[in-house]
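Quick one:
INPUT:
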């Protein structure tokens, strides 16, 4: 038996090696190889650290000991020891260095386990990916080239590590197809299925991290990209284990035959991983050649809506960015005006616009907000007139953001304008169908007491729509029905708005007067004006800022009144015809 004694790397010499070799050989011959392994991997002895140093004079001797143990120790004991070493938090050793030393021995040990390796492989892959998750993902071309934290290096090593197990699974899949009419041995089939399951879990987890975090560069931008190659390898593993990429991507709308295994369906195919997979296929064009050309653009859009909905519902900017990219790519091949209204009965077709609105109004990144607006308009353009009508109606009833409401009203105006042009008539943006939508638009949320500044965008677009209608639609034609509805609009919108404008102007004029009087008298700013926007109280304003804010508010009220006056002039003139 060994007497365990700590030995530093600096104090390790040839005599120590000879002594260790004799004692170790004796211990192994007596069946105590596990004790030898525990001493080698004991961090106090620093033999493992010696193995990591290419220039260390004792490295070849330590490596010989280590390789001998790989041949003589029990695989299970060796596996546990190696994984414990991999999982140690040692700031003097990088994760990439641990991978370089340990992945090959781990591969050797797992291979020696034969057909019953699946659970051990799963445990190993889980530990390895736990280490990968500690490394930041490079975002830019330069970061991927420099690979400071060596995540790219780790991904490359990981590809080599799993390859023999993937090839084994591939061969099992081929053999199962050849012998599909024969009843396979129960234990063998179970072992093969376990191996497939562990590799599937590995692929799904790598899709979640690091691939969902990575912004893959195209070949023109980065000719050699370890992350792009890693993604391609992961996608190839799916086919090796008998998983169809189209079925995975289109899972939300395809009835999958339940696959026997050790995982429930939602766990076996995580939404986050499937969303990343779809992004790799349709945005990064990974494995695009495996997708048949028979799938229509509308079918692809329907399948991707669940992935888009999931990505846009997240708060991480990387997820939102990929959700916008996937939605845009899914929409671009769909013809304008072809999506029918019944698609809005599919939950995701209403959830995605709601998530987009959150991106446009709450996201901190200006580029993401701008892109969200662009994709939102693109999605509107793809619907037919009935679907646009239903979508606008739904949005006006559910959205509580003046800027978005104003944007929807502007779209309604554009659709009415298109419908009134010769040859473009439709039943949804003229006549009886249009009036309920117009009534919804031409209304004040709180009557005369509506906060006109808070609802500025909505109110101005509503006034612009009404002015457009009375100019564009002749009273003798009344294609939109606006002239028969005008008296109601007068009572429910124009009069309450005029009262609201007068009340608000009077209030702010008094505030301006008080501000000016206080300035003349030289009094201190005891009473500061508090401004509330969107139910959030902004910091109190000083005298100069208060006066400027009041003048801006008065200008807004003048602008509203000028449009109201113009509408009254237009309607009075036509009513007298």
């Amino acid at each position: 038996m060994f007497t365990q004694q700590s030995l530093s790397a600096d104090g390790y010499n040839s005599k120590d090696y000879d002594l260790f070799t004799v004692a170790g050989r004796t211990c192994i011959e007596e069946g105590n190889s596990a004790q030898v392994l525990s001493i080698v991997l004991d961090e106090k002895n620093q033999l493992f650290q010696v193995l990591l140093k290419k220039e260390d004079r004792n490295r070849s001797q330590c490596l010989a000991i280590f390789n001998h143990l790989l041949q003589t120790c029990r695989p299970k004991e060796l596996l546990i020891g190696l994984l414990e070493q991999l999982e140690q938090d040692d700031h003097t050793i990088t994760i990439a260095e641990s991978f370089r030393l340990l992945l090959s021995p781990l591969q050797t040990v797992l291979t020696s386990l034969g057909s019953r390796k699946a659970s051990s492989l799963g445990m190993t892959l889980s530990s390895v990916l736990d280490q990968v998750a500690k490394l930041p993902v490079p975002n830019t071309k330069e970061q991927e080239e420099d690979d400071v934290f060596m995540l790219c290096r780790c991904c490359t090593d990981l590809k080599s590590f799993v390859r023999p197990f993937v090839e084994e699974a591939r061969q099992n899949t081929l053999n199962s197809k050849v012998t599909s009419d024969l009843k396979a041995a129960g234990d063998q089939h179970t072992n093969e299925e376990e191996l497939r399951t562990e590799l599937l879990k590995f692929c799904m987890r790598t899709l979640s991290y690091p691939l969902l975090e990575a912004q893959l560069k195209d070949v023109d931008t980065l000719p050699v990209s370890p992350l792009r190659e890693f993604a391609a390898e992961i996608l190839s593993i799916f086919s090796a284990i008998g998983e169809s990429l189209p079925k995975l991507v289109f899972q939300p709308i395809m009835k999958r035959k339940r696959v026997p295994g050790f995982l429930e369906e939602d766990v076996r195919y995580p939404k986050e991983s499937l969303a990343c997979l779809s992004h790799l296929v349709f945005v990064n064009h990974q494995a695009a050649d495996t997708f048949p050309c028979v799938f229509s653009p509308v079918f692809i859009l329907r399948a991707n809506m669940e992935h888009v909905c999931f990505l846009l519902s997240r708060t991480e900017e990387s997820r939102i960015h990929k959700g916008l990219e996937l939605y845009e790519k899914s929409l671009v091949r769909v013809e304008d005006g072809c999506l029918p209204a019944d698609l809005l009965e599919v939950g995701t077709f209403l959830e995605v616009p709601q998530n987009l609105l959150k991106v446009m109004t709450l996201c901190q990144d200006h580029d993401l907000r701008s892109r969200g607006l662009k994709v939102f308009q693109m999605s509107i353009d793809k619907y037919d007139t009935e679907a646009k009508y239903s979508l606008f109606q739904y949005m006006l009833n559910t959205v509580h953001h003046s800027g978005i409401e104003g944007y929807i009203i502007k779209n309604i105006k554009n659709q009415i304008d298109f419908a009134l042009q010769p040859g473009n008539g439709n039943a949804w943006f003229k006549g009886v169908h249009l009036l309920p939508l117009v009534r919804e638009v031409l209304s004040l949320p709180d009557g005369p007491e509506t906060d006109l500044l808070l609802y500025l965008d909505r109110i101005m677009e509503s006034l612009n729509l009404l002015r457009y209608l009375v100019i564009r639609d002749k009273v003798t034609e009344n294609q939109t029905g606006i002239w028969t509805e005008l008296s109601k609009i007068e009572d429910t919108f124009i009069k309450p708005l005029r009262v609201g404008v007068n009340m608000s102007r009077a209030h702010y004029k008094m505030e301006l007067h008080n501000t000016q009087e206080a300035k003349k008298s030289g009094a201190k700013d005891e009473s500061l004006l508090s401004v509330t926007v969107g139910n959030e109280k902004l910091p109190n304003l000083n005298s100069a800022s208060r006066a400027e804010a009041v003048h801006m508010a008065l200008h807004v009220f003048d602008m509203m009144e000028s449009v109201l006056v113009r509408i009254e002039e237009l309607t009075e003139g036509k009513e007298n015809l």
